[in-house]
Design brief:
Order of helices and strands: HEEHEEEEEH
Strand content: 15-25%
Helix content: 25-40%
Number of helices: 3
Amino acid sequence: MTSTLVQEEFAITLKRLVELLELEEEDDHGILRPTTYAFMSTLKLILEAYELMGDSFSPASPCTDEEGGIILTWAHLNPELDLTVVFPASPEYNSYIFYYPSDKDTVEYEVSASKLVDWLQWLKGE
């Protein structure tokens, strides 16, 4: 994968992720800027998922939690479904995938690029 071949949808996710590093370190509600652990874990997963998906990668909306973890959300693909991947601020806690159709919520603790690809394809109805 070369930088000239990085497709627009993936570039959007990368840009949004890097913008989190530019946030103030914290505010009255907690930590705003992600920890290095959360950022690197997130970056590794989305790079690996992009390697597997290529042009079918859909952009995610990242944000931080109050402890410096990162939450990636794909909610724009289908109004009835939602997919979220949570990366904790430190390795003391587990990452997880949270997904829900309109009738049930489910959490999966096996977080890998191949699992993310499977869930993104599910979200797209593939």
